[in-house]
Amino acid sequence: MTGTLVLKKFSVNADAKEEPLVEIAGRVSGVISFFLTVIGIDPTTHLKCFHDRIEFREASLFGEQNMTIPLPATSGISGGYTKPFRLLVMAGVVFVGSIILGANAGATSLLIGIAVSGALLLAYVLKKEMGLHVQNGGDKLWGLNFKGSVIENVAVDIDRVKQAVELINVAVLRAYSA
C-alpha cells in the first residue's frame, strides 16, 4: 500500500446497477505526480466495489498490482480518519513558550508566538487523512489512505467515508446471505 494519496475521484452510488457502488481513485501527492498524470503516465491507485467483488489496483512507475476480492471472501471493512496530533502539541508548546518569552522580551514576541501557534492549530484542524480498507479473509488489508484534493477539486469528509463503508458492508452482507 502506498502512503497518503490525493483524491482524483470519490464516488458513492447506492443505486448503481452495473457501475461501481463505491469508486475511489488517488495519486501520490506532489507536483511531479500531478505532471505525470497530465502527460498520460497514470500512477494511480483505485478501489472499486461492485455488487459481487471489490477491485484494488495500485499503479506506479515501477509496475502495477491488481487484486480482486469476491464479496463473500471479505472478512472486514474499515474506514476512518487520523489527525496529526503532534501539530496540536507543537501549537501548545509554542503558545506557552510565547507567553513566557512575551513576558520577558515584549509584546512582539508574544504576538509572533500566538500567530505561529494559531497556524499550527489551523494545520491540525485541516490536515485530516482518511482511509478505507478491506480485509480478504485472514489476508492483508487492501485499500488506501487519502486526503481531499485542491487541484483535482475532489472534496471528501468523514461522513462520505462512513457512507462508503456502510454501502460496502451492505453489499458484503448481501453476498453472504445469497
Concise structural overview:
By secondary structure, the protein is an alpha+beta fold. The protein is 39% helix and 35% strand. A hairpin with a 4-residue loop joins strand 7 and strand 8 (141-147).
- Biggest sheet, strands in spatial order? 5-4-3-2-1-8-7-6
Determine Rg (CA atoms, Å).
Answer: 21 Å
CATH C-level category of the largest domain: Mainly Beta
Shape: elongated
Q: In the CATH hierarchy, what is the architecture of the largest domain at level 2?
A: Roll
Low-confidence segments:
none
Q: Compute the number of helices.
A: 4
Query: What is the string of SSEs from the N terminus onward?
Result: EEHEEEEHHEEH
Helix content class: 25-40%
Please, could you describe this protein's structure?
The chain has 178 residues and is an alpha+beta fold. The protein contains 4 helices and 8 strands. It has 2 domains: 4-81 and 130-177, PH-domain like; 85-125. 39% of the residues lie in helices and 35% in strands. Strands 5-4-3-2-1-8-7-6 form an 8-stranded mixed beta sheet, with helices on both faces. Helix 2 (85-105) packs antiparallel against helix 3 (107-126). It is elongated and about 70 Å long.
